[in-house]
Description:
Distance between the termini: 12 Å
Number of helices: 8
Strand content: 15-25%
Amino acid sequence: MRTRVKICGITNLDDALAAAEAGADALGFVFYTQSPRAVSPETVREMVPYLPPMISTVGVFVNEQIERVQELTKYCHLSLLQFHGNESPEYCRWHGSRVIKGFRVRDASVLEELKAYEVSGYLLDTYSRESYGGTGACFDWSVARQAAVEKLVVLAGGLTPDNVGEAIAAVRPYAVDVSSGVEEEPGRKAVKKIAAFMEAVKEADAAGRK
């Protein structure tokens, strides 16, 4: 199975189009205002009509009010919702759209937490006391490998063009999610890094089929 790729932390149309042209399956727009990669709803709304038709647009929220999420889903024409805070299983079920729930992994105890959620995808990221993502650090991939046996896992946390192939071989996730690993600076992507990341994913998939 081909590993899907989400490029997160998109803040401008040039980066969005570069990611799409490189072959990304999904683009992530962060609506959490405390993130260095936060983007305004107006900017996302202006970008979406220029994207290729098969690209998924993912709104990333952290402990946001349900009404606000629903409002932005319609306003920005979002394909998917990603909840990356402390949202409950009940909260995730409130939304009619497909939902990816983010989990910050400290250890294997997260595997029990996953069982309480019925969502489209389970994004596993590195735990940090200071932030809800974008740390640029990896976690123990063996935990993600265990989760991927039963769940559609989106692997995140410190992925780069240099290590994503190893990560795919270790976990065999449904998708990988990258943000800081393909940046020049927070919120500004590097086209060459995106291309290198996509190439590494393709090579890992080809090696896995042998």
